[in-house]
């Protein structure tokens, strides 16, 4: 009872008598083929398994329960009604009139377009949930950037320029995944190897979703700081004023004015200010909080492409109405939108 050997013998017996082991994903495949779940829900099964953080899991479970499917189904029903009305009117003009219909169609299309746009707007949040936030840590040498990784991944010394290459780490903050890249300290240097590290740091920062700029509060700002502040201007970034456990040589308000970003005082050594950093990240990427009650998040690239084509088709219908085109043209683009949502 409960022994591995007994289970193995039972399994061998049932296979010998005609059973077989299930293929990977076979139960999900059968559920899809038998119409018990749709493709979006089948994909959500894989997303649940591959979830790397709390938000990704909640989003995947919500999709598995049919949240995306319900939204798409509602849209398709509304579009199908308009297609059916146009086709019926064209086939039976004696009984169904199209007088004033273009105006009614425009009014009906407006909420549909907004709903598709809302779904598309959630794609960035959805990608961040499923893949994590690509985060780059920038700062001068010895700003104690590597200490933010929380583990002894890098050699940290009092000697400037210790970190020469980019170091990658995955960090989880209140259910959020950060794919963190720690970089070489930004400064003008004649050291060939360090110079390559600085170039790699700037390249990584250009491709990042989020830049965390760590300022050494114990030292006055210099040209290297000004270069970094100019670089992060207009980008999604968080500025950390580190070493608040020491006497500060940098004023928080002056730093905020200089870099045009909110500044969070922290002490990496004393582990102070990390909660404020977590809240700021949530504010930047999730508008403060995430709700899975009504809001649907698109996390699948295939879904995003289909929604983009749907939006293009709906906008084509609006353009056809504005141009005074015949009703046949409305039907063609509405059908295309219907089919894209069907995918």
Quick description:
This protein has 343 residues and is an alpha/beta fold. The chain has 13 helices and 6 strands.
Describe this structure in words.
The protein has 343 residues and is an alpha/beta fold. Helices cover 53% and strands 11% of the residues. It contains 13 helices and six strands. The protein has helices spanning 4-16, 26-33, 39-50, 54-64, 67-91, 101-121, 123-131, 192-206, 223-232, 252-259, 274-286, 301-322, 327-342, and strands spanning 133-139, 167-173, 176-182, 210-216, 237-242, 263-265. The protein has a six-stranded mixed β-sheet, with helices on both faces. Strand 4, helix 9 (223-232) and strand 5 form a beta-alpha-beta unit. Helix 4 packs across helix 7. The longest helix has 25 residues, at 67-91. The chain is flat and about 85 Å long. The two termini are 48 Å apart.
Instruction: Write the H/E string, N to C.
Output: HHHHHHHEEEHEHEHEHHH
Query: Could you give the count of β-strands?
Result: 6
Arithmetic mean pLDDT: 82
Q: Which class best fits the helix and strand makeup?
A: alpha/beta
Query: Beta-sheet strand percentage?
Result: 5-15%
Sequence of strands across the biggest β-sheet:
2-3-1-4-5-6
Number of helices in the DSSP assignment: 13
Largest sheet: 6 strands, mixed
Shape descriptor reads flat
The percentage helix is: 40-55%
Radius of gyration over alpha carbons? 28 Å
Detail the poorly predicted runs: 152-164
Distance between the termini: 48 Å
């Amino acid at each position: 009872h409960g022994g591995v050997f007994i289970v193995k013998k039972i399994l061998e017996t049932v296979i010998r008598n005609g059973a077989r082991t299930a293929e990977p994903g076979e139960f999900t495949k059968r559920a899809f083929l038998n119409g018990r779940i749709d493709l979006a829900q089948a994909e959500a099964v894989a997303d649940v398994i591959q979830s790397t953080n709390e938000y990704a899991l909640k989003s995947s479970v919500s999709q598995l329960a049919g949240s995306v499917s319900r939204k798409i189904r509602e849209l398709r029903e509304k579009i199908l009604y308009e297609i059916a009305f146009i086709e019926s009117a064209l086939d039976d003009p004696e009984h169904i009139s199209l007088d004033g219909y273009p105006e009614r169609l425009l009014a009906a299309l407006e909420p549909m377009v907004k709903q598709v746009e809302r779904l598309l707007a959630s794609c960035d949040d959805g990608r961040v949930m499923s893949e994590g936030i690509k985060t780059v840590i920038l700062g001068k040498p010895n700003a104690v950037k590597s200490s933010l990784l929380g583990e002894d991944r890098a050699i940290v010394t009092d000697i400037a320029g210790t970190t020469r290459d980019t170091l990658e780490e995955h960090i989880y903050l209140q259910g959020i995944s950060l794919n963190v890249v720690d970089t070489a300290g930004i400064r003008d240097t004649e050291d060939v190897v360090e110079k390559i590290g600085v170039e790699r740091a700037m390249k990584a920062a250009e491709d990042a979703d989020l830049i965390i700029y760590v300022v050494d509060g114990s030292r006055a700002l210099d040209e290297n700081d000004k270069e970094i502040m100019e670089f992060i201007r207009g980008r999604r970034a968080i500025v950390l004023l580190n070493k608040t456990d020491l006497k500060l040589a940098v004023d928080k308000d002056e730093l905020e004015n200089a870099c045009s970003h909110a500044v969070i005082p922290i002490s990496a050594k004393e582990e102070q200010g990390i909660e404020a950093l977590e809240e700021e990240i949530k504010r930047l990427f999730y508008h403060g909080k995430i709700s899975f009650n009504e809001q649907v998040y698109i996390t699948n690239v295939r879904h995003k492409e289909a929604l983009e084509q749907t939006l293009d088709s709906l906008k084509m219908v609006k353009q056809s109405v504005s141009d005074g085109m015949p009703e046949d043209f409305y039907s063609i683009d509405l059908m295309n939108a219907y089919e894209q949502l069907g995918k």
